[in-house]
Design a protein that fits this description.
This protein is an alpha/beta fold. The chain is about 45% helix and about 15% strand.
Length: about 850
């Protein structure tokens, strides 16, 4: 590495090749010009008594004055780039920051010719003026920050005006708390806000927007608020409209939609400017009917596929099956496995050993279970099937009698019927003196077949697919096979295209490339899972190419985010600045729900913003790109689709900044203290951001103390309590993790719901899943069932390792994360309650005893729990 003088002389020699007007020629031989600048700079340094700021002060005096006044003729961008390069070579240090801002930023409407030569020479003289030894054997550090070193220009005077206005215009109960004021008035380039349940984060975010828009005059075109769902987007917009109206700021829903976005609607902007991608569509936004308007669904987190989406996948599937020999081999192997009873299970496994204790009871009810499910197949018109005997065939499993529904002689296979997915999960059969769900009885039958039966079994669980599957096996159908496949760790089988889509989406949400990830996995020799992921690795890139070649190109959102990730520098180069400019100020809500793909996109956008040097000249001062992340790692409950609280918990690692302000909003304006304490007692067993504890702050509830009540499953007690709270005029929320449990509860409270509709109080009784309740609240909350980890997933553990999402190097990172997530899910459910929470618990219906469940963390000796269980 050469000295500063050597690099400066090289730059100067390059500068001499450029033509300079004669009236501006330098006369380096006599040194007159240099001496004048030298004298002026020395006088200036002495005048202001500068020490460490010598470089930038003199640089400003000479480089700016000469460069600005004499170099106005060329464009701003070229001048800035050249000035930046030379400034780095000369080692301006702090001088570069201030000199470039004060001198170059204005003077770069000038340009590079005379300003380049004279600015460089002046800078060289300034550096020479500073005495002392400069190290020449240490390379300069690399600035990895995503943000400039700046403060939002909120002066003390402006802050007092903001505080006074908010005090005057908002009622007393809406006045910000001290931590909320920190968030509203944050000056740092990055701000990380841990906002606990009921902490008023949305209102505080609106007031932050007010500061940006009204007081700093940042236009909506340079602001983006990002959230995850369409409902939360429009709820936030309505709050903005209400608050802005108090300041007489024109705002309506249409204008709000321009800057309050979902991640998915925002990424579309990165495509729609391009002539080649005009009309491009998002796969997830495709409606059921092509004639309908394709728009954002209510919840993009719901990855269930509609008919139109499945049709596109099926067309690609058919093409690939016909043209790719290896893909065809893999699919046929998966097909035969998929209609079988499943992989053999080890009877010596501790969990299976526990199940064997129930084998006699299951055998005793087996005939009734077989007849019940067979009657459903007959009623649907799908039994008997061609060339299959229709009598029950007794079989011996571990010394006990079970039955097959038929036998296919030509295929040398027994036939066992399962419950079609369209049948309700509420059907029950007799089990001695009690009743048991048919679905549970059939689940246990299947397990015993996997444990103790080695002959070929065809296991049909779909009315629609059974006949097609038989004909495919018999070679009567040459087309692509339709079948379901249960990926390791999933609760139940899914149609093969849905299984492909779910797994690919998970991998991409982790920031992984699907073919590369599948090649990076390892499975036991002969494992069917290896064939599934090999087939997925072939199918997914073919499907993405198939989508891109549609008349209007189609992309999955994960593909869109990947195309503009932090590693996509070439793509970012082509993006117009006005597209990026919209994220000059970025606020992200529910940050804990981000996956690696959206994190990488955010990092890419912020990095490009800084690279381009984009900024906004507010009347109060300069505003550079910034990020405010708002969330709660205790409410991170979407790990099964690829999100992770790690990005929020390690925010500074993923979003390096000269300064980050950490804020905790811990006052809870929703729930009474015992609800808060009970919920926290469950979730504090997980890894999380330390030092959090919610404090009841709503004046109507902060002095109330109603313990969370624990009950055994009791339908009569549930109905009585729901009716009591309805009579008191309360809003009621009935929650469960299981949709089938919610269907049962809906039947129980049907009469009360009808009454509520008649009394125009239909919204006072809501039934939803624990996940669906996030962000909502009610006076009384009824939780039906535990929050428990149900399965382990080898391939997801491998994916977590490939994505480097382990927290502490744990071996089975995904399983560990899921064990923590069930605790957070219970926290979310409990904290929906303002006043009362009732938790009805029963025995696990399929979970593995060694897996975590939230109820195990209940300390019923604490005052915030009241245990009515027997």
């Amino acid at each position: 590495m050469g000295s500063l003088h050597e690099s400066g002389n090289e730059a100067a020699s390059q500068g001499k090749q450029k033509r300079v007007p004669s009236n501006q020629q330098l006369t380096p031989k006599d040194g007159t010009w240099q001496k004048k600048v030298h004298t002026f700079a020395r006088w200036l340094l002495e005048k202001i008594k500068a020490h460490d700021s010598n470089s930038w002060t003199a640089g400003k005096a000479s480089g700016y004055e000469v460069g600005h006044e004499e170099g106005k003729k060329l464009g701003r961008k070229e001048g800035r780039d050249e000035g930046h390069q030379v400034g780095r070579e000369l080692g301006y240090g702090q001088g570069l920051i201030k000199g470039r801002e004060d001198g170059f930023a204005d003077g770069h409407e000038a340009g590079k010719q005379k300003g380049y030569e004279n600015g460089y020479k002046a800078g060289q003289l300034v550096l020479d003026l500073k005495p002392g030894v400069r190290p020449t054997d240490v390379a300069p550090g690399v600035d990895t920050n995503l943000f400039e070193h700046f403060d939002f220009p909120i002066s003390e005077e402006l802050e007092q005006r903001i505080r006074a206005d908010i005090k005057e215009k908002l009622p007393a109960h809406q006045q910000p708390t001290d931590p909320q004021w920190e968030m509203i008035l944050s000056k740092t380039p990055s701000t990380c806000v841990v906002a606990g349940a009921g902490s008023g984060k949305s209102t505080t975010m609106v007031l932050r927007l007010l500061v940006l828009k009204h007081y700093l005059k940042v236009p909506e075109s340079k602001i983006t608020v990002v959230t995850f769902t369409r409902d939360s987007r429009f709820d936030f917009i309505s709050k903005v409209v209400k608050v802005f109206a108090k300041w007489d700021i024109p705002m309506d829903e249409e204008k709000g939609k321009s800057f309050v976005r979902t991640f998915h609607s925002r990424i579309l902007d990165f495509f729609r400017w391009s002539p080649q991608l005009q009309g491009a569509k998002a796969f997830e936004f495709l409606s059921e009917d092509a004639t309908d308007k394709d728009e954002e669904p209510e919840n993009v987190l719901d990855i269930r596929l509609n008919v139109r989406q499945l049709d596109l996948m099926d067309r690609c599937y058919q093409n690939l099956f016909e043209t790719d020999t290896r893909f065809r081999e893999l699919i046929l192997a998966l097909f035969e496995h998929g209609i079988g009873i499943g992989d053999p299970l080890n009877p010596e496994d501790p969990e299976n050993a526990k199940r064997i204790f129930a084998i006699k009871a299951c055998s005793d009810r087996d005939v009734e279970a077989c007849e019940a499910v067979e009657a459903l197949w007959r009623k649907a018109g799908h039994w008997p099937l061609p060339e299959i005997t229709e009598k029950l065939h007794p079989l011996t499993l571990c010394g006990k009698t079970f039955h097959a529904h038929g036998y296919a002689k030509d295929l040398n296979a027994y036939v066992v019927l399962g419950l079609d997915a369209n049948e309700p999960d509420t059907i029950k059969i007799k089990d001695g003196k009690k009743q048991v769900k048919l679905s549970q009885a059939l689940h246990m039958r299947r397990i015993f077949f996997q444990l103790f039966f080695s002959k070929r079994v065809l296991y049909f669980t779909s009315y629609a697919d059974a006949l097609h599957s038989l004909e495919t096996l018999r070679g009567k159908v040459s087309g692509v096979p339709k079948f379901s496949y249960q990926v390791g760790g999933d609760i139940k089988p899914a149609p093969i295209m849905a299984a492909f889509h779910s797994c690919a989406s998970f991998l991409e949400n982790l920031g992984l490339d699907v073919p590369a990830a599948t090649k990076g996995m390892n499975f036991k020799e002969g494992a069917i899972e290896a064939k599934f992921f090999e087939a997925l690795g072939i199918f997914w890139p073919a499907f993405e190419e198939f989508l891109s070649k549609q008349s209007a190109p189609i992309f999955t959102f994960n593909k869109m985010f990947a195309m503009f990730s932090e590693h996509a520098e070439e793509n970012f180069k082509n993006i117009p600045s006005n597209i990026l400019d919209a994220q000059m100020v970025t606020l992200v809500d529910e940050f804990q729900d981000c996956g690696a793909n959206t994190i990488s996109w955010l990092r890419g956008v912020l990095g490009e913003l800084r690279h381009r040097g984009l900024k906004f000249h507010s009347p109060e001062g300069l505003v550079f790109p910034s990020l405010m992340a708002v969330g709660d790692d205790w409410q991170s409950i979407y790990g099964w689709r690829g999100s992770s609280p790690k990005f929020f918990q390690h925010f500074k690692q993923y979003f390096p900044s000269p300064r980050t302000l950490d804020i905790k909003l811990q006052q809870n304006f929703r729930s009474q203290q015992m609800v808060i304490d009970a919920a926290e007692s469950i979730v504090t067993h997980t890894r999380g951001i330390p030092g959090k504890h919610g404090e009841a702050a709503h004046p109507d509830v902060k002095d109330l103390h109603y313990p969370v009540q624990l009950w055994d499953k009791d339908d009569e007690q549930l109905v009585n309590l729901v009716e009591q709270h309805y009579e008191q005029g309360h809003e009621i929320m009935v929650l469960s993790r299981s949709r089938s449990t919610l269907k049962e509860a809906d039947e129980l409270v049907r009469d009360l719901k009808y009454r509520a509709r008649m009394e125009e109080r239909a919204d006072d009784i809501r039934l939803m899943t624990y996940h669906g309740s996030k962000g909502l609240e009610a006076d009384a909350v009824f939780m039906l069932g535990d929050c428990e980890q149900l399965t382990s997933s080898d391939w997801r553990n491998q994916a977590y390792a490939l994505a480097k999402l382990e927290m502490n190097g744990e071996a089975r990172a995904y399983d560990y994360a899921q064990g923590e997530e069930v605790m957070r899910l219970a926290y979310v459910a409990i904290t929906r309650a303002k006043l009362h929470c009732y938790w009805f618990l029963d025995e696990s219906k399929g979970g593995v005893k060694s897996f975590p469940k939230a109820s195990e963390k209940i300390d019923n000796g604490q005052a915030y729990f009241s245990d009515f269980r027997k």
